[in-house]
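hey
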């Protein structure tokens, strides 16, 4: 059974930092493009950042560019999202998935709350 498990969320003040982790089990995602997504209260889920499987090329939503960094450790089958200069509008549940997404891989997500 394939699982993607997100962790690392929490409550942080505006301007603070967090590092999210996404651990994959059940299969290797070494050569899969992966991404982080988020759903804010009352909004649709949106793309945050992506990283390619082969060369680690990264892409970011304009809203997080320069503040967030996506990375991966293929040996650990884990993808990370380093978040800095957090803003209240970054408050959301954060999910990882393949990019483009696979509906069967959505996990529980991890809650990030940024207080002003």
């Amino acid at each position: 059974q394939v699982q993607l498990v997100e962790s690392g969320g929490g409550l942080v003040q505006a301007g603070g930092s967090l590092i999210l982790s996404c651990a994959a089990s059940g299969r290797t995602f070494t050569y899969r493009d992966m991404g982080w997504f988020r759903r804010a209260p009352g909004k649709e889920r949106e793309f945050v950042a992506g990283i390619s499987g082969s060369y680690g090329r990264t892409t970011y939503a304009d809203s997080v560019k320069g503040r967030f960094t996506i990375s991966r450790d293929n040996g650990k089958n884990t993808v990370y999202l380093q978040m800095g200069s957090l803003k209240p509008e970054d408050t959301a549940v954060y999910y990882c998935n393949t990019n483009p997404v696979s509906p069967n891989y959505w996990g529980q997500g991890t809650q990030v709350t940024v207080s002003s």
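Strands lie at 3-7, 10-13, 18-25, 34-39, 46-51, 58-60, 68-73, 78-83, 92-98, 110-115. Residues 70 and 81 are 5 Å apart (CA to CA).
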